[in-house]
Amino acid sequence: MYIRGDHAELVVGGRLDVRSAADARTALHSAVDDGAGDLVLDLSELDSWDATGLGVIMGAHRRAGRCGRRLVLRGVPPQMQRLLVATRLHRILAIEGGIGVESLPRV
Questions:
Q1: Does residue 103 form part of some domain?
Q2: Blockwise average pLDDT, block size 10, the chain, 107 residues
Q3: Dist CA 3 CA 29 (whole Å)
Q4: Over the range 81-103, which residues count as b (16 or more CB within 10 Å of their CB) and which as e?
Q5: Which InterPro entries has this protein been placed in (predicted)?
């Protein structure tokens, strides 16, 4: 897993899972704490995430809200879009361009 960017936009790539969760949490919390306005999290280079990775993103979302910021997801891969829909988190998280629920393949 890697994260690059600044306090306004971060690109997350690789696997966001239990092994990388602590490092990801630290990077996201620092970005939230050090900036202002929307924090864009570009997930277009993310290969996969597990429940722990999703928890890290939700934690960053909550922290951003407490800091008066908004976490915005960009470039969410289709398989991760399906997970967000299945967990109904697409209704809570800000997703750039939204998720076209009707266009996602049924599983």
A1: no
A2: 91 95 96 95 94 95 96 93 92 86 52
A3: 12
A4: bbbbeeeebbeebbbeeebeeee
A5: Anti-sigma_ant (IPR003658), MlaB-like_STAS (IPR058548), STAS_dom (IPR002645), STAS_dom_sf (IPR036513)
User: How many CA atoms lie less than 13 Å away from 32 in the CB half-sphere?
Assistant: 24
What is the CATH number for 36?
3.30.750.24
* Residue 68 maps to a domain: yes
Apex 33 CA angle, 30 and 82, nearest 5: 70
Q: CA-CA distance, 65 to 51, in Å (whole number)?
A: 21
Q: Does any domain span residue 23?
A: yes
pTM for this prediction: 0.87
Domain tally for the chain? 1
Tell me the two tokens of residue 23: 């490092």
The residue range of the domain holding 44 is 2-95
